[in-house]
Structure formats: C-alpha cells, structure tokens
Amino acid sequence: MGLAEVTLVFAYLKPFPALPQLLQRLSERHATTLVFAPDLDPVHRQRFEQPEGGQDGEGAPGRIAFADAPVDLAAAARACDLALLNGTHAATSVFLQAGKPMLHIPLNLEQGLTARAIRLLGAGLDAAGDDTDRLIARLDRLLESLAARPSDSYTQAARRAAAAMPNAASADSLVDLIARL
C-alpha cells in the first residue's frame, strides 16, 4: 500500500457495545488510526494496541494507537481523512469546519440529532453502537469512498459544508465586536 493510499482515521469515542468490533474492522482494513477513548476497557486497548516493532499478538495489522491524554481536535481534524465520533456538537463542528467526513455512533438523543444532520448533509454516516453489522457496513462504505479519492462524495460534501460555515476568524471578530459594545 503506497503512502497516498493510507487512510488516517481519528476516533474520539466513549465506549459502546460494538466498539471492539469497530476496532477490529479498522485493523483488518489497515486504516492507520489514533483513538482517544478514555473510558475504554484496558482489555480492548491491549488487544488492539500495536506493540513495539510490528503486529499484535493475534496477527492483526496493528495500525491502531491510543492517546493517553486529550488530543488537539483541530490538529486531528487537519491530519485525518475520517473521524469516528459519538456526535457531540463541539467535536462534530471542528471536523466539519475542517471538511472531514465522519462516522457517528451516538449515545444519546442530542448526539443522534447531530449525527442525522451530518448524514443529511452527505458529510458522513451514523449507526447505533449496538448494531454491529450496520456499524461495520457504514465504516466500510466510508473507507471505500475515501479510497476513491478525489471523487469521494463524503469528503466533497464535508468540504462544501465547511465552505458555507462561518470561519473561526469571523467568530473571533464577532466576539471582539460584542466585547467593545
């Protein structure tokens, strides 16, 4: 696999029933992945974390790394090709402003509404955390779309949405304006 074919995935997730299967599929698909999941069961982390020098003990490609501390979301958004999120408004906004497609695994109603909005924009997909088959199918769909670069429809839709959003400079200017009043 050439460098241009490498897919970089960033996952910022709270645990859900199908998380181990999601991590397994990322490993099988050779997606280089950085995961920040502070409440992840250490057993799952040990299973998927790449040991020094190569593959994990089960023979999986071992392309998953785990962050021990919170990750700068703006930097992650600039670097990744795909984000896996629960659907919090703050994280979703950062990745959408960066024009990155997302797979949402919502844990509550508000996250589900955010995930639905992203799906309706065409900038990502969503699946319930207890529906393993649908979750894996949607992950595969996004990864396959990314492999079709530059014609990837999810990234194109995310970039169109980003272009339509007010940028951070505009928001800062508005805050400055309000402060002067």
Principal-axes shape call: globular
State the end-to-end distance: 56 Å
Strand content bin: 5-15%
Helix content: 40-55%
Which oligomerization state do the chains in this entry correspond to? single chain
Low-confidence stretches: 52-57
Strands, count: 6
Task: Write out key terms for the chains shown.
single chain; alpha/beta; 181 residues; six-stranded parallel β-sheet
Give a brief outline of the structure.
By secondary structure, this protein is an alpha/beta fold.
Give a verbal description of the structure.
- By secondary structure, this protein is of the alpha/beta class.
- The protein contains 8 helices and 6 strands; from the N terminus they run βαβαβαβαβαβααα.
- Strand 1 (8-12), helix 1 and strand 2 form a beta-alpha-beta unit.
- Helix 1 packs parallel to helix 6.
- The longest helix is centred in the last third of the chain and has 16 residues, at 132-147.
- The chain is globular.
